[in-house]
């Protein structure tokens, strides 16, 4: 399978615990995005990377959230001191940007998501 | 404030009954408008990208159009397998995506 993969698919944790999710993008994609989605809502942008550089973070992203993409390939999203409000589906997407801004630029391919439940 | 609004929230169609979904946006520096399909428990699946007003794209029974303020996803003669949530998203300068809340489409056989 050459699509975007995420691990784990489901995570149940107790309030106050730390959790880490992993995303493996499509191999030739240089951009990687993280989103959060709650029931009945569209995905909410969290952050994105171009190669290993984190270029933008949503102002909604609290300091309990941190993301890395150390070698420009896979990425991790860590949530520290989880709260019940963090319960959601966490989606990863990747895209290839040749930098021309033309057709094909920024078309994102999503993974299946990690569903987090904080008890 | 940058915003994407979709309507209706939910739509039930008889098989073969054509209709349109609406996506209105107020996004400064719009670079593109995207349509996705999302099935329950899965990540969104890319359908179309539109870059400029007047542009149209088609794929099977779906056709997306774009004006300066809104986009439409037209569904012609839908089938039950078209049942899903359809999301639109706008991207502005800085590569931040803004998604709407989606339209949940149910096609009844």
Describe this structure in words.
- The complex is a heterodimer of chains A (119) and B (109).
- With 119 residues, chain A is mostly beta strands.
- Helices cover 0% and strands 47% of the residues of chain A.
- Chain A has strands at residues 5-7, 10-13, 19-24, 31-37, 44-50, 53-57, 65-68, 75-79, 88-95, 109-110, 114-118.
- Chain A is globular, with a radius of gyration of 14 Å.
- The N and C termini of chain A lie far apart (33 Å).
- Chain B has 109 residues and is an all-beta fold.
- The mean pLDDT of chain B is 93.
- In chain B, the strands form 2 sheets. In chain B, strands 2, 4, 5, 9, 10 and 11 form a 6-stranded mixed beta sheet that branches. Chain B has a 5-stranded antiparallel beta sheet with strand order 1-3-8-7-6, with no helix packed on it.
- Chain B has strands at residues 3-7, 10-14, 19-26, 30-38, 45-50, 56-59, 62-66, 70-75, 84-92, 97-99, 103-108.
- Chain B contains no helices and 11 strands.
- Chains A and B meet through strand 4, strand 5 and strand 10 of A and strand 4, strand 5, strand 9 and strand 10 of B.
**Oligomeric state of the chains?**
heterodimer
- The amount of helix of chain A comes to under 10%
User: What string, H for helix and E for strand, traces the elements of chain A in order?
Assistant: EEEEEEEEEEE
Q: Using only CA atoms, what is the Rg of chain A?
A: 14 Å
Q: Let me know the largest β-sheet of chain B.
A: 6 strands, mixed
Q: SSE order of chain B in H/E notation?
A: EEEEEEEEEEE
Low-confidence stretches of chain A: none
Main interface: chain pair and counts: A-B, 26 and 26 residues
Rg of Cα set of chain B? 13 Å
SSE class of chain A:
mainly beta
Distance between the termini of chain B: 41 Å
Shape annotation of chain A: globular
């Amino acid at each position: 399978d050459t699509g975007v993969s995420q691990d784990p698919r489901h995570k149940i944790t107790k309030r106050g615990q730390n959790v880490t999710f992993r995303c493996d993008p499509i191999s030739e994609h240089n951009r990687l995005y993280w989103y959060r989605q709650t029931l009945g809502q569209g995905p909410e942008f969290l952050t994105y990377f171009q190669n290993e550089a984190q270029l933008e973070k949503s102002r909604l992203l609290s300091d309990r959230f941190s993301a890395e993409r150390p070698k420009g390939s896979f990425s991790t999203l860590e949530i520290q001191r989880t709260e019940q409000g963090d319960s959601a589906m966490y989606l990863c997407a990747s895209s290839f940007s040749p930098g021309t801004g033309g057709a094909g630029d920024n078309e994102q391919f999503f993974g299946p998501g990690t569903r987090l439940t904080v008890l | 404030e940058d915003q994407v609004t979709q309507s209706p929230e939910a739509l039930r169609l008889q098989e073969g009954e054509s209709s349109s979904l609406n996506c209105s946006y107020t996004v400064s520096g719009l670079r593109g408008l995207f349509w996705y399909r999302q099935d329950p428990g899965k990540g969104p699946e890319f359908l179309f990208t539109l870059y400029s007003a007047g542009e149209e794209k088609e794929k099977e029974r779906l056709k997306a159009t774009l004006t300066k303020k809104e986009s439409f996803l037209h569904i012609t003669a839908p089938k039950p397998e078209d049942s899903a949530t359809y999301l639109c998203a706008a991207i502005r300068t800085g590569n931040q995506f803004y998604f709407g809340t989606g339209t949940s489409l149910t096609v009844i056989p």
